[in-house]
Structures are given as C-alpha cells and as structure tokens.
Design brief:
Elements: H1 2-18, E1 23-24, H2 28-32, H3 36-48, E2 52-57, E3 60-65
Antiparallel strand pairs: 1-3, 2-3
Helix pairs in contact: 1-3
Length: about 70
C-alpha cells in the first residue's frame, strides 16, 4: 500500500508542478488520475514532507506546491 501511496504522491506532485494555478482539493484526484481515497493519503504524505501548500478560501480548499518545491521563478 505504501508503494501505491508514494506513486499517487508522485502523480499529484507532477500535476501540481504543471499547473499554473492552485487546484481545488475536489478536482485534484481527477486531474492527477488517482482515486479520491488514495489522493487523500498521498496529500497527507506530501503535506507532512512540506511539499504542498493548502489554502482555504471559504469552503473550498486549494492545493499547490510549496514555494520551495516550485521549479519556476
């Protein structure tokens, strides 16, 4: 299972790296082609490692790479 979570984390990281804007938590699994439950576990992994930034705007949560992970300047 850890392997699947790690693979999903990689897919999510790649999706976020390609995105010009933060992605909503609700749409991220589809954009990253990962099932919702696995995406949540992978996001926890990425958050724990400090690789993502979660931002709440009203009832919507947006996900993006943390500034230290961003490959664009």
């Amino acid at each position: 299972m850890n392997g699947k979570i790690g693979q999903a984390a990689g897919q999510i990281w790649q999706t976020l790296a390609k995105s010009k804007e933060p992605i909503t938590l609700a749409t991220l699994p589809k954009k990253a082609d990962v099932n919702a439950q696995l995406a949540q576990m992978a996001l926890g992994w990425l958050a724990r490692e400090g690789k993502i930034k979660l931002e709440e705007k009203g009832k919507i949560v947006f996900v993006s790479l943390s500034p230290s992970e961003c490959c664009c300047s």
